[in-house]
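We emphasize that the prediction below concerns an isolated chain of 215 residues; any contacts that depend on oligomerization or on bound cofactors are therefore not represented. The input was used exactly as deposited, without trimming of termini.
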Amino acid sequence: MSSKDPGKPVPRSVIRRLTECLAHVRHLRGKGVEWISSQELADDLGLTSSTVRQDLSHLDFSGISKRGYRAAGLEQALAGMLGADTVWTMVVVGAGNLGRALSLHEQFPRHGFNIVGVFDADERKVGCRVGSLVVQPMRELPATVAAAKADIGVLAVPATSAQDVADELVAAGIKGLLNIALAHISVPPSVPVIDSRIVAHLQELSHAIKALDRD
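Result of the prediction step, given as a token string:
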């Protein structure tokens, strides 16, 4: 299923909350929960019921008065909107510690993200095994992306290499990028980029901890 208004973009903040909502609904379904209210979702996710209802209004799915949302239907609607009902193929560029850790992450295939290639410009890393994959040289990137019809490219490279790698991935036909490099990258508007900033998030966390200590 898709958004009620496919021509209107959904704010990124809403997407983040719906992603958390999907993970929670799947958890509840695993426990046998059949119905859930917006208030229960709000309490579990640390939100207001109004925010939950507004977020879920973007779905082509409705609850039932005094019953809430049927969990199975809500999961299906959320998965459809977020693309979680599709299998996505990924390549990882960068076979350092972070790139290898991502490539070995068990949750990716469980949630429909299959890594089909790991690449590195360092010849010393080429040929090394990462799980079931072998690190490939960058010159093999275009052929692998084309053969696997890879959708997503993950940049786990030094900041100085990020833009060049992004350009190569876009030229190879990648549809979207997850940028873990500590650098801003510029790509065509047709290729969405999500920046993942672990250090920045840790700094946000440290600020939150200090703020609580001052209270």
